[in-house]
Amino acid sequence: MSLNPEKVTVPRPELFDFHGVWMAPNFTDNWENVQKFEARPDDILIATYPKAGTTWVSYILDLLYFGQTSPERQTSIPIYERVPFMELFIPGKVSGKDLADNLPTTPRLIKTHFPVQFVPKTFWEQNCRIIYVARNGKDNMVSYFHFDTMNSTQPEAGTWNNYFQRFIQGKMMYGSWYDHVRSWWKKKETYPNLHYMFYEDLIEDTQQEIDKLCSFLGLSPSAEITEMVVSGVQFDKMKNNQMANYSNVPFMDFNISHFMRKGKVGDWKNHFTVAQNEEFDDDYKKKMKDSTLQFRNEI
Ligand code: PPS
Prior knowledge:
6 strands
């Protein structure tokens, strides 16, 4: 039985060079409006390269802010409506920007995959808090590959070998992972309201990462609430939670792969050949040599 029975397959988009970043129309067609987004000082932007843990952190924030005050939200509003995807523009659907504009909550939680240079300027002007989540490149690539196989709004994934090369070349939707994680990391030097966190740390010690998030956000939840959040965002809970697992999104074919797929660090070992691993490591050293950013490919 299909988990998302009203599945719709749309023609796969082609990537094109958009201000120096590989993108596709669903994320650029509303560019002018998105750039004019009017951020409020209490807006919180969750920024990631795709497949780095966006949904996980979005759900953590949603529970921290609204888990107690709006319990009905937990059973009736999918995460992608609670935390709109700012630049998403699918003809015939409400745009991410409009959803974000009309969010009734305070704060408004907003998702983006934009590289740092694409973020609308009001977020900086309003000194909004921004949370960036990064994931090690190997697992990020594997997760993205499976996502592209099952999501017809993404470019065709093709073979794993081909995908591996494309990732290294940065010819992915939202461009180079290397540029993305590095330039957001650099931004931290000049923009203190940016909390940079890692998927691997969240896996290793979810509670500790939530504590750090709370301290960044100026929240002091009771031990009971923290426990409720930690338990509510465990992988299996989210995988079985229809409001968090994307099972009602028509463009995703769960017969191919699930959105909540494995949720692990080190799954790349089941995909990378020895030669690919060497190639990745050699190339990584060159590309990342000037950055102080450190990733863990295993924990
Ligand atoms: S997206 O489409 O860019 O918004 O995807 P994103 O949410 O950033 O990333 C999806 C990957 O995150 C994993 N995930 C989790 N891992 C552990 N615990 C929890 N709670 C969790 N929630 C989401 C999800 O399974 C995807 O990773 P993979 O490796 O494909 O399983």
